[in-house]
Amino acid sequence: MVIKVDFDLTMSILTHNIYRLFALEMERYENMLVQSIYEKFIKNAADIEIDHDTVHVTLKKKRNLPLVLEKTDHLI
């Protein structure tokens, strides 16, 4: 029996799980709802400049931005 899974459903579940993992890394935000995580941390405007060998991302100021940058510092 072949089970076909809708692509949208798969992406929604994957996104939900990524947000949950992201929240687990943030102290005091472990129990926050996915929609709240998105609004507080992810939904943000930015200016992006692409040079020959670098990409510069300038994020708009946001209250929770320092916490995100602290957690993602090892990615840079």
Summarize this structure briefly.
The protein is of the alpha+beta class. It is built from 3 helices and 2 strands, in the order ααββα.
Give a structural overview.
With 76 residues, the chain is α+β, with helices and mostly antiparallel strands. It has one domain (7-75). It contains 3 helices and 2 strands, in the order ααββα. It has helices at 7-25, 34-42, 65-72; strands at residues 46-50, 55-59. The protein has a two-stranded antiparallel ribbon. It is flat, with a radius of gyration of 16 Å.
Question: Which helices and strands appear, and what pairs or packs with what?
Answer:
Layout: H1 7-25, H2 34-42, E1 46-50, E2 55-59, H3 65-72
Low-confidence region ranges: none
Beta percentage is: 5-15%
SS-based class: alpha+beta
C-alpha Rg, in Å?
Answer: 16 Å
Question: What are the salient characteristics of this protein?
Answer:
alpha+beta, 47% helix, 3 helices
